[in-house]
Amino acid sequence: MDIPRRRRTHFSYHHGNRREPLSGWFQLFQMMPVFLILFLSLFSTFIYPFLYSPPYQFYRTSSHPVERYTKLHSVPYFVKESFGQEYSTAEAVRKLERDVLSVRKQDLREECYAARRRQGFRDVPKDKMPKSCQEYRRLTSSKTRG
């Protein structure tokens, strides 16, 4: 026994409300927020280094060619040629050197942890410890000029 199936028919009704295609200018206007965000992110990426230059680096660069050492622990760092003008007081230099030591200790701690992880956190003699661990230990254990 075959049951006859009804065919579905699709009707499309046009009520005269045809949409006009959007103009190119309107579509471009709708995309402006996306273009603006893209432009600002690229602009900030390329312009930021020119607007902000850190007061020191741990390696020599063309903008930081002058080598200095912290009074405590003799940690090397590099500054701009205008360092003496920007840091003219002993207190300003002390504050900067505290920051240099703090950042350097943090960097060494992270490097030491990564090196120890690669070694499987095995106990090793002091002379076989990674250099970052040796330097971190020197900076954190000693309170005198190294």
Automatic annotation (TrEMBL):
Q: Which GO terms describe its cellular component?
A: endoplasmic reticulum membrane
**Any GO BP annotation:** cellular response to misfolded protein
Membrane-spanning segments: 28-51
What keywords were assigned to this record? Membrane, Transmembrane, Transmembrane helix
Q: Name one GO molecular function term.
A: Hsp70 protein binding
Would the keyword Membrane turn up in this protein's UniProt record? yes
Q: Where in the cell is it found?
A: Membrane
Record's bilayer topology term: Single-pass membrane protein
Where does the signal sequence lie? none
Domain DUF1977, first and last residues per copy? 53-119
Among PANTHER family, the record links this protein to: AT29763P-RELATED
**Protein name per Swiss-Prot or TrEMBL:** DnaJ homolog subfamily B member 14
User: Which organism encodes this protein?
Assistant: Geodia barretti (Barrett's horny sponge)
Taxon lineage: Eukaryota, Metazoa, Porifera, Demospongiae, Heteroscleromorpha
